[in-house]
Write a structure and sequence with these properties.
It contains eight helices and eight strands, in the order βαβαβαβαβαβαβαβα. With 228 residues, it is an alpha/beta fold. Helix 1 crosses helix 2 and helix 3 runs parallel beside helix 4. It has one domain: TIM Barrel (Alpha-Beta Barrel), CATH 3.20.20.70. The protein is 38% helix and 18% strand. The structure holds D-xylitol-5-phosphate (DX5) and zinc ion. The site of D-xylitol-5-phosphate has 21 residues, from strand 2 and strand 8.
Length: 228
């Protein structure tokens, strides 16, 4: 079992005070998860490499850039230069997922494949040994603050079984609608990295929410440890 890790998405943070928002939760989390949207792959726009660079300057934690864009091959190197440590893309946007994987690696980053709720695990299976993370989406990509799609849980379990049975080293990260009331469900399904956006940046007390999620992950890790 990998260590259970927490990755806040900054999507619903206050961008006017982004460095403060990042630094406030940094002591309680393992990664920052940065959602890049292009208005084509998804019906929303967020930010580009300059915002990734701003987060890079604000903390020392690893940064995972989740590209929800049509042309990851074109932009991967720019996000790497801005300070990304991992870059994940949706493979159905390209006829050449292998080239995107290679470009991300050449840029010096870890690679992830994202799995849209409506897409199967075939490409994950195909590239399992090339990737550092499988990002299972439990909302349709495009917006923070959506409801968790429980129907994806069996696919998370299948992704975990695939990784373990093949002896691959990829993390299984789950993204979308995760809060304190359903974090157990995704960890029990096999996630070892949990993204939470509006579950942390809720407009109230982000550090307190991050601490609560962190504490629950510690409890789950010790009960999973006892069970194994
Ligand atoms: C959705 C993004 C997610 C999401 C996380 O398109 O990829 O990372 O914003 O935010 P919450 O936890 O609010 O769903
Ligand atoms: Zn995301």
């Amino acid at each position: 079992m990998h260590r259970l890790q927490l990755a806040p998405s900054i999507l619903t943070a206050d961008f006017g005070r982004l460095a403060d928002e990042v630094q406030a939760v940094a002591p309680h989390v393992d990664w920052f998860h940065l959602d890049v949207m292009d208005g084509h792959y998804v019906p929303n726009l967020t930010f580009g490499a300059s915002t990734v660079a701003a987060v890079r300057s604000a903390c020392d934690l690893p940064l995972h850039v989740h590209l929800m864009i049509d042309n990851p091959l074109e932009f991967a190197a720019g996000f790497a230069a801005a300070g990304a440590n991992r870059i994940t893309f949706h493979p159905e946007v390209t006829s050449e997922p292998k080239s995107v994987i290679e470009a991300i690696k050449e840029a010096g980053c870890g690679v992830g494949i994202a799995v849209h709720p409506d897409v199967g695990l075939e490409l994950v299976e195909k590239y399992l040994f090339e990737v550092d993370v499988v990002l299972m989406m439990t909302v349709r990509p495009g917006f923070g603050g959506q409801s968790f799609m429980g129907e994806v849980v069996p696919k998370i379990e299948a992704a975990r079984r695939l990784v373990d049975s093949e002896g691959a080293r990829a993390d299984v990260e789950v993204d979308g609608g995760i809060k304190i009331d359903n974090i157990d469900l995704v960890v029990n399904a096999g996630a070892n990295i949990v993204v939470s956006g509006s579950g942390i940046y809720d407009g109230k007390d982000a550090p307190a929410a991050a601490r609560r999620l962190r504490a629950r992950l510690e409890e789950l890790a010790s009960s999973l440890g006892e069970a194994s």
